[in-house]
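Revision sheet: structure tokens.
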Amino acid sequence: MSDPRPLVMHLVYSFDVGGLENGVVNLINRMPPERFRHMVVALTQCAPAFCARITRPDVEFLSLEKPPGQGYKLYPKLYRLFRRYRPTILHSRNLAALEAVVPARAAGVPVRIHGEHGWEESDPRGTRRKFRLLRRVYQPFVTHYIALSGDLERYLVDRVGVPAARVTRICNGVDTARFHPADGLRPSIAGCPFASPDNVLIGTVGRLQAVKDQLTLVRAFARLVAQRSPASERARLVIAGDGPLRPQVEAEIRASGCADRIWLAGERKDVPEFMRGLDLFVLPSLSEGISNTILEAMASGLPVVATDVGGNGELVVVGATGTLVPAADPAAMADALMCYAADAAPRQSHGAAGRKWVEAEFSLDGMVERYCGLYRRLLDA
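Predicted:
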């Protein structure tokens, strides 16, 4: 007997550690199982360790092993895939997976949703004409768009020419039970060399890659330390994550003159506990959609210093939950770090306000319900 539940096929470029992929995991795990079936397809690879984060036993994973180069060569394979599994909804995400909507329509997939989660690393401001034209070419093949931020929503409508009625904005949600403030004193981070409660721990979490710009954070921290104030003497920097930028980050730390106050923590499996061990969270990115890590930091009761890019301004309430600084500006970031390092009062008040803000506006259950509602509305149209 066939399963009557509609099949949602989630198509991504790669299914491995990342904010976009975390969103897929949260959506599948939280969506009521009686409403939809799910399948995850990666154009390249589904990492087994990451797939294990999905707790539902009925989810199938498929890696297409796409080589570098033109994706149209994959069209016949995608067409056969869609004909075999007959998804009711194809939900592709970001530009690298957008072209799959062409064989999906040819194969008769009824609803083709495309999500824009953030800018490409090679186009951090969304200004490249080539990428805008590509989105225009594929636009007729997309039934509906999901934009994670107002910035992306405006881009789709104003620059790509998507009718506003075909765009829905759905922000990420955060698991506030998993990410929550420390109970009492700040706990120690496993392996952290800065155990003294007198230290002010400034931290970030993210893949070490150019668009995340941890180099600016190291430079800003070096400026903070160079001020030789009581606050700067207590400040320590911890950077969680790994990736291709690691050699440059290590070199920048060595050149900073304060390497003994900086810890590269590597990729972490204990991000909630890591967050609870910080006093201040920093996101130095050159480009963002809607940052999961900002939401996780605020849910953990941390004040946030973030760059004023993408959807960061939709998350951080300046003067209430944190502050925004220009991207790639170590001096401005150092000033913001000093404001929090020097005074525990705004750290505590902004952290508490951030927690309340996330609980009210960015709950995971609310996000899931909005996706469910959109899926159902498009199926019923």
